[in-house]
Task: structure prediction
Amino acid sequence: MKTPTANRKRIFASMHAISARRSIGLPLAAGLLLAATLAGCVGGPSGGLAPGLTQAVNTPNAQMDRAAALGIVNQYRAVRGVSALSADGALDSQAQALASQYAASGTPPSMPSGVSAMRLSAGYTNFAETFSGWRNSPADADVLASAGARRAGFAVVYNPNSAYGAHWVMVLAR
Result:
């Protein structure tokens, strides 16, 4: 016959196991869903990310693949349970002007009016690296998944005379 103390220990251990499964289960499920979603970005026989995400921009006048950038951000947003962003040419132009300013001065630009959020990065040579940096920063990840954002603009400018080279800008708006 089990003692009351043994029963309490068994019940506590069961409750702890259930609590641990709940706390691990949601992040694990979200991580697995993100991995499966990002597997959809795989292209070509090499099994790497889509070329638009890994295209190097460390040459003057290099262009980023804005559609691929928006695609991976929207896949991340889906995993986080928020609606997709739509491309916005005016925001792309605004992001381009901000990225040019950032690359020329080396000073992060101020967030312009009409923009609900802005993310900057410098030094990464492709969007996959830039996105990973934002996704792995809790503050940046929350901005990527901002429920109030509806439109997005992206840009990168490479400055060979800058210590960082590539300067990335993402702007979001309602």
Q: What stands out?
A: Confidence is low (pLDDT under 50) at residues 1-47. The radius of gyration is 21 Å. DSSP finds six helices and six strands in the chain.
